[in-house]
Give the backbone structure.
Amino acid sequence: MLNSNKKTLMHKLNNEKVAGYIFILPFIIGFVCFISFPMLMSLIFSFTKYDILTSPKLTGLDNYITLFTKDPLFWKTLGVTMFYVLFSVPLRLVMALLVAVLLLKATKLSGFYRAVYYLPSIIGSSVAVAILWKRMFASDGIINALLQRIGIHSNIAWLGRTDTAIWTLIILAVWQFGSSMLIFLAGLKQIPVYLYEAATVDGANGFSKFFKITLPMLTPTIFFNLINQLINGFMAFTQSFIITEGKPRNSTLFYTVYMYQNSFKYNKMGYGCAMAWCMVLIVGSLTAIIFMSQKKWVYYESER
Amino acid sequence: MRSRKIRRTTKHIILHIFILSFAFVMIYPVLWMVLGSFKSTPEILQSAHRLLPESFSLDNYITGWKGFAGFSFGTFFKNSFYISITATIGTVLSSVIIAYGFARCDFKFKKFWFGCMLLSMMLPFQIIMIPQYIMFNKIGWVGTYLPLIVPYFCGQGFFIFLNIQFIKGIPRELDEAARIDGANIYSIFIYIILPLIKASLVTSAIFSFMWRWDDFLAAMLYLNKPGRYPVSLALKLFSDPTVGSDFGAVFAMASLSLLPIFIIFLTLQKYLVEGVAVTGIKG
Amino acid sequence: MKRKIGFLLVLVMIFCAIQGCGSNQNTDKESKDNESTATQDSGQGEENTGDNEITLRICWWGSQTRNDLTQQAIDLYMEKTSNVVIEAEFTDWSGYWDKLATQAAGGELADIIQMDYSYLTQYASSSQLADLNSYIESGMIDTSYINDSIIESGSVDGKCFAVSLGSTAPMVLYDKATVEAAGVEIPLQPTMEEFYDISQTIYEKTGVPVYLENGITMIQYIARARGSEIYGELTNGVTDSALEHLKWVETFAKADFSISAELLSEKNPQVVESMPIIDLSTWNAFSFSNAFVSIYEACGGERELGVFMYPTLSDAKSQPMYLKPTMFFSVAETSQYKDEAAKFMDWFVNDIECNQILLGERGIPANSQVSEAVKGNVSEIGAIAYDFVTEVNKVATAVDPPNPAGYSEVEALLKNLAEDILYGNLTYEEATEQFVPQAQTILKEAVE
């Protein structure tokens, strides 16, 4: 009697439908306890006027209407952020992939190189980098000095011009490709060696191995990095905040920085929350589109 | 024969030079900061184009280490390690467990929960900051390390997603083979999947540690006593732009704070380097 | 492999148990208190033991210098009073206001809060700060040696919510070598026209450009010179001072002896470390007297810097110079120990021994006796700032009331429009036309 009860219990637990929930239980708990409440609150705040120090007052859709019709900075910062994402994300991914492939071999030197290429990601949001970046791109900074060595006479104030300032931030983002590189490395390591061996036997060269084996097998990782970098790109904050503070003329004012200013500097928390949810909608839609495109280009070994 | 070898060696050398010089460019800012820690603060600001200091001095390290208000950086480092390690253990373990659920199981409302997970990645922290604080305050967690550690035991979107991708890369034949041998869903997870995604686990650990190490926002909000501050927060305090700051000391302590991550990365590298020879199918 | 995982799982469970996941908060807190007590120097015992012992929380922003000095002062106070334990919390400037707002939302403000002029109105009018009038009247906060105007500067609607910790005055610094090389003499308070001419001469003789402060401080100053008050004007949609100020911004922007807009943007004059005067991108710097020492040191500590007052209008109706509080201490309305907090504040501001430790790091002390006593110990460089403030004190008129709600947004708006003028995208009339109505709306909506 006991045995059959035990068996049915085990059978139930072994069922995908139940086991699935057991496995994602920690997430559900965390989401419900730590995330859903603040999320809901921020959604409610977005329909209020809330200056943090006094209670919120319901104002309905006012914040959203102001955002879309009366706030030029909303569109400006959205544009700046999109521009930033448009250039920094592909460049980062390409660099990360190239370097990961180059440094694939397990030699001592390549281990050291990998650490070196990864370092920038670690100090990326530190004050030291902010100072250094400002110095490097100063009119009397290293970048100009180097350009002069090659013969280009340049004393451009890279950070002071509206057309170049954003590029200093894009370069900063691309410089930190190390984190994506690391993920590509992990992904590359997962590609079964026998695939390459079989290809060599068939007479394939380096190029075709890369395009016919490496890339397709890497698509799950590329997919991950793409989504991730996209989200991170839109949420970029620190670089703009400490290096340029949005100057000059708001050409480097990221959406999240403007949102932060509204929430904490101008004490328009409700407005800031409305901005946040707009961002969620935009990024969410983009993510959804990319997810739906998965079937067309992402190859999962387990879903052949 | 010989010319081919020469060509190959030349190709190697050129490649190496290229990688080396590019590496130098990549690492220049870090070098600048580390070498700057040996310069005096005014020298840092005024001779930003020069890498090497005029004279090496350890002053910044000595001043910097003293920290402030009676707490040395030794305390701050200890705190950082405590927070980062516990949170990382929590993150990696919980994320991989959750990832397995999403990657290998099909269940009701799966898409909904998956969407929630993605949503959690898209929310800017500043927006949920205040409601979260109010919540933690009500349950008495403010002033402790709890808000900085416990949420991570419930997984983090980035790592869940990462592990999902890797688990999906493992062929289902392995699962089925194990099932034939009598394994259930849980043992497949422990004995088949986990060993095969080592690279992703290591990557998760590195990232998680680094992010917890660098995070100062949560520490700033929830920790009141300077004696509990981690290095990241202490560094931020060191460099308040409204008052002239001692950048020499900042650089010195920042350089020091780079060390743990760098060392972890170097040592964990070998787990990244092991290849995956999927012999399971054949054997 | 099996064993490793099992071991890890057990570790996880142990950690979870330690964290307690919500149960047994107090033992958790206490054990952590003991951890940090071991490393703290201030010798605190456990909280709330003994009959009379109370714990005050105090928070401030600042650099590590201020943190060290203030902690020393606090230690001194705790030595002198047997029943008060003070727990200090401090962060840097930018993190401070985020944290304060968050704490206020959660009803968790510290007992004694360092407060700034630009946030005072906001916190006072949302009832976060305690009214100190009763303490001042009873003498618990002794103001006999503190100028009335200083108390007024911490008051909103006649109620004092904050006690000033130090005074500062607007101050223009200049590089003495450059100015001497150009053979000019700068009066202690030039007019704008004189400032314009002097800048031109300096540029012709030495090639070093000038910059004019174009933000909220300057427009406030110009309004004062015209006998007016900027926020009053903006709330009522009056454009006169804005027009005057932006006209000067454009005049200087068009002059060839001004630093280029791009360079000025790069050399952000708002932050001490990057000011253009440091590498002589300009020969001057617009700042405040309490930043003098920092700027001096940022310039390398060897260049001689001179000082003069912000330039006034040639047809000025009143003296625009003023003494402003650098920062205040306030008491939180939610504090349970307001009396003790007030006593500490009284000691902090009036006690000579305390201020010998602080040495005017927060500005010239508000108490005139204390200020005299401390001056003797201040460095040679610091003395320059002291003397300047003494000069200003002779002519200064009362400071403007604390900034109204919505002030930061107005400040940001002005910065953007001034930038547009500097880059040649707007004329000063166009800028004024955009500035005043928008500022008016911002100020109106902030109080609704």
Summary: The first helix of chain A runs from residue 2 to 14. The first strand of chain A starts at residue 48 and ends at 49. Chain A is about 75% helix and 0% strand. Chain A touches chain B through 100 residues (CB under 8 Å).
